Amino acid sequence: MNKKEKENLVKKRLLELSKEISKHNNFYHNLDKPEITDAEFDFLVQENNKLEKKYPNLVLNKSPNKFVGSKVKNKFLKSQHLSQMFSLANAFNENDIVDFIKRINKFLNKTYENNLDFIFEPKIDGLSLNLLYKNGSLVSAATRGDGFIGENVTKNIININDIPKYLNSKFPDLIEIRGEVFINKEDFKSINSGLKKNERFANSRNAAAGSLRQLDTSISHTRPLRFIAHGLGKCSFIYSSINDYYNDLNKWQIPTNNLSKLCNTVENIMSHYNKVNNLRSDIDFDIDGMVLKINNFELQKRLGNVGKNPRWAIALKFSSEKANTVIESIDYQVGRTGAITPVARLKQINIGGVAVSNASLHNFDEINKKNINVHDTVEIERAGDVIPYVTRLIKKNNSNNKKIKPPKYCPVCNSKTIKEIDEAILRCSNKYGCYSQKIGQIIHFISKKSLNIDGFGEKQAKQFFELKFIEKCEDIFNLYKFKTQIINLDGWGELSYSNLIKSIANSKKITFEKFIYSLGIRFIGEVNSEILANEFNNLSNLLLITKDTSRLKNIDGLGPKAISSLLEYLDNKENLNSLKSLQKILEIKHDKKIKEKSFFSGKNLVFTGTLVSLSRDEAKYLAKSKGAKISSAVSKNTDYLIIGEKAGSKSEKAKTLGIKIINEKDFVFKINQ
Which residue from 316, 307, 287, 386 is spatially nearest to 98, judged by alpha carbons? Predict the structure, then answer.
């Protein structure tokens, strides 16, 4: 093949990629119904970028790198929930349920034999909604959003028959009713039959989300949306149990799940799980698992939450779907933390109504353990929103015995790769210079859980980075300097540019814990970000920690890996410069959650010994909820040492330092004052 013929093939492929990327951009951003996963989209973009880099003379005028696919729309108004909306952790089998119940019993200081009452019901595959009623009248309806603030869709839900505008019978002065908006299977088929083939929704969940989140409310009103309640937010009346609450919902003609069951043993739970699983095809709506939750609201309150996950509830997912296909090639993806993940490019297959052409191979140890290579037939598993992955080898088609070796150099920046002790994952050593890690950091910084900038997502970030409009997180706030260039990009104009700049300006107010999380420091997730924010209160205090690292080691709940990662991050000059720049740009406030006042409010506590009436974990959680700080070691800054049975050396040290010592009985009395 001569040069001209080769270039013609490349040009043809670039045209195909441009059309594919443009199409999927539109499906994702404007129609709320993505046809492929983010990983699959990234593969298309990567292939396009490689060809453009190799053949710069063939770059198209309508190259995907010259436009941003989402049309910036007028946005929904924001709506703040009166109490946090949680996300559920997942369980996948009976052992996970046993462990979940053991964790609850341990926290509550109960024995495993002490049976707890649970409500166990199907998990509807829809869109979470929070309804606020005041004096019996519907005031607002909002999506979950980030758990604290969602989108106000009150005008969109007024035609949903399952949501009354007024509560009949006796009702609380104020109540947040949580539930799921969904579309029945038959209605989903009917909606799709009335749409053009290229406009149809991939599944009923996308149909429900796309129907509800319409700026043109008349579209929402014509769609057969339904609602089933399953949760309670802030309420002026104190319910004793979910059963009691459900009874009132039914009096108000708000539907609850008719497959909900009270269970108090693992046997009951698994029996009901198997029963519902067998009925799945006969249920009118799509479900993707079962939700197990403590029936007693007082126990729910005692158990509390860890970050976004309640301790008192878990989702037991249904068995994942599987299919066999052939690996056509293996590529490497480099993530935000430098993790190099081998990904199989597959002969496309359909798993549960979703087209799958890529699957994770996890790590190189797994590849060799499963004896997998290119051209082999393998089993692919897909469970819910989890990226499909290769589970096992079905047929060895590759006669080449040569093993796939881990790359010695990063496939993106060509830096040396490293493998940390006791870790299976290979990483790029160029932590702050690798393209994938830099762009990954920016994407994390603007994501929903971080700055949450409307109209500014992964695709836009990648394009602005490629065009060198942004190189670091703080550069986002200087995008106004590129007004002319942005306006002239395909898909942009004066209005869309103006909306972007306004969204960026609106993101400048951020809580301290969200800011810490937005930095993307390894091992510093949402829980550790909250711990650090509560300990240091502001960025200036946190930056001083390098001068007194012992304070970090004394913070309860902060592990050695998180401490090491944080100190390494703060030791980097570029990171410090970025932090100081962001400190000037952003309005970072420590949004202290309102704590119940008690004797221990604002005090530093240390626990030692075995507690009898409650577990150590519950005692700490209770103290934190009343505004106390928990440390792991006694120091001159300790206000009180709480001692249980068999107290150790901490008691002697407290006496030496003159720290006040309180026994368990006095602690329980004072914490409840």
Answer: 316
Among the listed residues 272, 24, 234, the one whose alpha carbon sits nearest the alpha carbon of residue 148? 234
Given this structure, which CATH class describes domain 511-589? mainly alpha
In 3D space, the residue among 247, 253, 12, 266 whose CA is nearest the CA of residue 120 turns out to be 266
| Distance from chain centroid for Cα 383 | 16
Q: Are 146 and 190 in contact (CB under 8 A)?
A: no
Q: How far apart are CA 51 and CA 54, in angstroms?
A: 5
Q: Which CATH architecture has domain 3-66?
A: Orthogonal Bundle (1.10)
Between strands 587-589 and 629-630, the pairing is: unpaired
DSSP letters spanning 204-249: HHHHHHHHHS-SSHHHHHHS--EEEEEEEEEESS--SBHHHHHHHH
Report the C-alpha gap between 423 and 417 in whole angstroms: 13
As a whole number of angstroms, the distance between CA 596 and CA 628 comes to 10
Q: Cα separation of 89 and 314, whole Å?
A: 5
CATH for the stretch 78-317: 3.30.470.30
Q: Which of 243-257, 303-317, 322-336, 375-389 has the lowest mean pLDDT?
A: 375-389
539 band by pLDDT with thresholds 50, 70 and 90: very high
Kindly state the average pLDDT of the residues 96-122: 90
For residue 230, CA distances in Å to 29, 227, 234, 529, 600 come to 29, 10, 14, 30, 35
Q: Residue 54 — very low, low, confident or very high, per pLDDT cuts 50/70/90?
A: confident
Do 321-428 and 435-507 agree at the fold level?
no
21: closest CA among 35, 9, 32, 11?
Answer: 35
User: Sheet of 604-608: strands edge to edge?
Assistant: 629-630, 604-608, 640-643, 660-663
Write down the pLDDT at residue 116.
94
What single-letter DSSP state applies at residue 479?
A: G
Contact 476, 442 (CB under 8 A): yes
| Cβ proximity of 624 and 634 under 8 Å | no
AA identity, residue 217:
T
Task: Give the neighbor-by-neighbor strand order of the sheet with 261-263.
Answer: 90-91, 313-317, 287-294, 118-124, 261-263
Selecting among 33, 123, 629, 650, the annotated active-site residue is: 123
Amino acid in the structure at residue 95: N
pLDDT of 387: 78
> Is 123 designated active site?
yes
Spatial neighbors of 660 by CB under 8 A, at least 6 apart, are: 639, 640, 641, 654
According to DSSP, the β-strands at 339-351 and 426-428 are antiparallel
* pLDDT tens-digit readout, 177-229: 999 999 999 999 999 998 888 788 878 888 999 999 888 888 899 999 999 99
Distance CA 297, CA 440 (A): 41
Phi first, then psi, for residue 605 (nearest 5°) are: -115, 150
* Angle, helices 458-466/3-29, rounded to nearest 10 degrees: 140
Provide the residue ranges of all domains of the chain, joining segments of one domain with +: 3-66, 78-317, 321-428, 435-507, 511-589, 604-671
- pLDDT(145) > 90: no
Domain 321-428, CATH among 2.40.50.140, 3.40.50.880, 3.30.360.10, 3.40.1190.10: 2.40.50.140
Indicate the CATH number of 435-507 among 3.40.350.10, 2.60.40.1930, 2.60.40.2080, 1.10.150.20.
Answer: 1.10.150.20
In terms of DSSP bridges, do strands 629-630 and 604-608 run parallel, antiparallel, or are they unpaired? Answer: parallel
Q: In this structure, which topology does domain 604-671 adopt according to CATH?
A: Rossmann fold (3.40.50)
